[in-house]
Write a structure and sequence with these properties.
alpha+beta, ATP-binding, 2 domains, Phosphorylase Kinase, domain 1, Kinase-like_dom_sf, 11 helices, nucleotide-binding, Aminoglycoside phosphotransferase domain-containing protein, Aminoglycoside 3'-phosphotransferase, Chain: A, domain 2, ATP binding, globular
């Protein structure tokens, strides 16, 4: 989503940022006046592109992460973990943790989302799958927080709190609450039983960059927004990639890409389920957890944070949710809940 940048005269953070880059010295020779919005995300972080006098980095990105809301240390830590795994992440060129500023290598402005089409999808997703395998192979215990039951549950709880109650204006009765808890418990049981690897948590088309011409073979994609990485279910990032909230592919195409990833992961020795049918079920159930969370997050971004740009993506996320819930008997109660929210009836007459 494009950044909304206040007038510098009314934004002390921008003046603070410009003062910081100006003070980085002759090695960088950054022109503060060149500071221009690069992007913003769904948090308090903002990104600015600056021109420098450094021969290896004619432009660089400044991350503005206000210390009252954001902590740069996880970004720095995960950047090293993923960089050591052999994938392309923004190198941290300079830092000021007290002020909440990082100077980062510039990976360009071409997101996967801006470049994906029928012709480019196979090579781009092939690169993304290969990078994902490298990240997962680098997994070491104790380096990242666990994607444990408490965190997975907190994410699921965003769905009733923000999507159902706040966005739809619906109060669940006791039976509906019990049905939703039952569905959540089934989802969590699946998620927690999956093999555990490094998980980016937002490995999708807005956070993967098509590197500029001249990048070395195997360097694509540039990977951004990894500071919330955890150790968690092995299917999570694959779901983020191919059941993306921002771009839709038909299920046959998704399946082809997913099988290629699964075969590559198995060959590399990753602990994916040996039977693809079992792996696909894990992928679907992990996707359901993610999409229920995303429905809550997009609603919260609108109602709490005033960011309406994500509302247009709700129908696709809801479509993914319904498709999976409708395929498994254990999830039938979720279908009934969704029907009740929409005031529709199933042909079987199963409604509230």
């Amino acid at each position: 989503m494009a950044a909304h940048i206040p007038d510098p005269g009314h934004d002390p953070r921008i003046e603070q940022l410009k003062s910081w880059v100006a003070g980085l010295g002759a090695a960088w020779s950054i022109d503060p006046a060149s500071c221009a919005p690069a992007s913003a995300d769904a948090s308090f972080r903002r990104y600015f592109r600056v021109r420098t006098g450094h021969p290896a980095h004619p432009t660089a990105i400044v991350m503005d992460a206000p210390p009252a809301h954001e902590d740069c240390r996880p970004f720095i830590h995960v950047a090293k973990l993923f960089g050591d795994a052999g994938v392309t992440v923004p190198t941290v060129l300079a830092q000021d943790l007290d002020q909440g500023f990082l100077l980062l290598a510039d990976l360009g402005s071409q997101t996967y989302l801006s470049r994906l089409d029928a012709a480019s999808a196979r090579p781009l997703y092939g690169d993304a799958a290969a990078a994902l395998v490298r990240i997962q192979l680098a997994t070491r215990p104790g380096e990242l927080p666990a994607y444990d039951r408490a965190l997975l549950q907190r994410e699921l709880d965003l769905f009733p709190e923000w999507y159902v109650a706040r966005h739809l204006g619906i109060t669940l009765d006791e039976r509906q609450q019990a049905d939703l808890r039952e569905v959540f418990d089934a989802i969590l049981a699946n998620n927690l039983a999956q093999p555990q690897v490094y998980v980016h948590r937002d490995y999708h088309s807005r956070n993967l960059m098509v590197l500029p011409e001249g990048a070395s073979v195997g360097a694509n994609p540039g990977i951004l927004d990894f500071q919330d990485a955890v150790i968690g279910p092995i299917t999570y990032d694959a779901v983020s990639l191919w059941r993306d909230a921002y771009i839709e592919w038909d299920e046959e195409q998704q399946l082809d890409w997913l099988i290629r990833y699964w075969e590559q992961a198995r060959k590399a020795g990753l602990p994916v389920a040996p039977d693809f049918g079992d792996f696909y079920r894990d992928y679907e159930w992990m996707g359901l957890q993610r999409h229920l969370k995303v429905l809550g997050i997009f609603a919260r971004l609108y109602h709490r944070d005033g960011k309406d740009g994500y509302l247009a993506n709700l129908p696709l996320v809801l479509k993914y949710t319904r498709n999976v819930a409708g395929r498994y008997s254990e999830l039938r109660k979720l279908v009934r809940l969704l029907d009740a929210f929409e005031g529709t009836e199933r042909p079987t007459g199963l409604t509230f």
